[in-house]
Amino acid sequence: MTVIGLDDTDSRTRGMCTTYLATQLSKAIKQAEGSITRQLLIRLNPAIEFKTRGNAAVAIHTDFDATTAFEIAQDLIEEYAEMSDVNTSPGVVVSPESPDAIPEMISQFSFKAIRERVSIERASELASTAGYAQQGWDGGRGRIGALAAIGAWTGLDSWTFEQIAYREFDRCGTPRSIDTSSVFAAAEQGYPQTWDTVDREATETVCVPAAPGPILFGIRGDSIAATTTVADAIESEPVVRRTVFYTNQGTDQHLRDGQIGALEENKAYRVGGEVHTAPSTGPGGHVTFEIIDNRRNSAPFTCIAFEPTKRFRDHVRLLRVGDRLTVCGEVSAGSIKLEKFALEDRIESVITTPNCPECSRSMKSAGRQQGYRCRRCKTREPGKVTVPIERDIEPGWYEVPPQARRHIAKPLVRGGFNGEIHPSR
């Protein structure tokens, strides 16, 4: 068996897609009488500044000769990779081992690449130690993702699927011709086994990319059968081929448990805390608030719901000081970029200045330690009172909408969360 890893062949501005190159490589292997067992699409740490457009690497599991596969992969990268983009830095790594026999050091590297920052030097060193063929172009940063994709099969324990439809290559750069109504109908039929196909409230076809590349659409789901049913129902321009990838999309594998006061930049966390300052909307429409951990006497830490998260911000604005939360997101520039949160214990009352029982006006202080009085009615109260409040937000989990969700982030509808869920569709 042979495992081929590829990464960083695309461009944010010029398009292309590493998954397309993988399909071309798979096609070449089949034409040479090899067979493909499976293909993987692995999303890496979304907090890395040098990430590719979707920060994904691919791996191909095949029975083809490793040396010949490496040579074909080199040729295809030189043919298809967007080398003219200064930010494109392709890499290929090839293992002559079975996917199930990948060394633990490579599997551990895969998991680390999803959660942390790893270097080209470390990736190259590990590949050399394992005896893998490797090559990089323009710095070869793609070797990081390529090696991570090789180790993913044994390094990860949760899989979803994406079925990608590719258009005719000479159509790249032209508007995609897809019947939008068929996409929404197919999405409704496939939900919740398939997810993030559309954003119903924003009336956006999330499965159709905006970049000028060869992908026509991609359907994500919990099974190959579910993605096939939805893909079959979409009416569009000619589809050259459809390829199923095993992926770690929709898994939250980038998140780790953390504590306020011990959070590191460019890592993503689940963090418990209490709302310390009321949410406020600032310039650009971003909503911010602070959380603290009173049990550890932590300093306040800022949480941000950015404007592109759209209606998610409405849930954030309903939070009140004292609410207990679990927040999830990437730490960047000293704050957490919210992906989802759980309202675990909400404030049901507030302590406030009493109102006069006669005229209902707010009473005034009668002086130090003398309680409150109504100057008009001469009524008195000994101190502040506890008043129940109405809340417009229920306990449970809330998430950004499909149009704003990161590929690796787990949609609430997939389950496995403690407490009620309020999925965004």
Question: What does this 3D model show about the protein?
Answer:
The protein is α+β, with helices and mostly antiparallel strands and 425 residues long. The chain has four domains: 2-155, 2-Layer Sandwich (Alpha-Beta Plaits); 160-247, Glycinamide Ribonucleotide Synthetase, Chain A, domain 4 (Alpha-Beta Complex); 255-348 and 390-422, OB fold (Dihydrolipoamide Acetyltransferase, E2P), CATH 2.40.50; 349-388, no CATH class. It has helices spanning 18-31, 66-80, 104-115, 120-130, 142-155, 180-190, 224-233, 312-317, and strands at residues 2-7, 36-43, 56-62, 91-95, 133-136, 160-167, 194-195, 215-221, 239-247, 255-258, 268-275, 280-281, 287-292, 301-305, 324-332, 335-345, 349-352, 364-365, 372-373, 380-381, 385-388, 396-399, 421-422. The strands form four sheets. The protein has a nine-stranded mixed β-sheet, sandwiched between helices. A five-stranded mixed beta barrel has the order 11-13-14-16-15. Strands 18-19-20 form a three-stranded antiparallel β-sheet, with no helix packed on it. The radius of gyration is 26 Å and the shape is elongated.
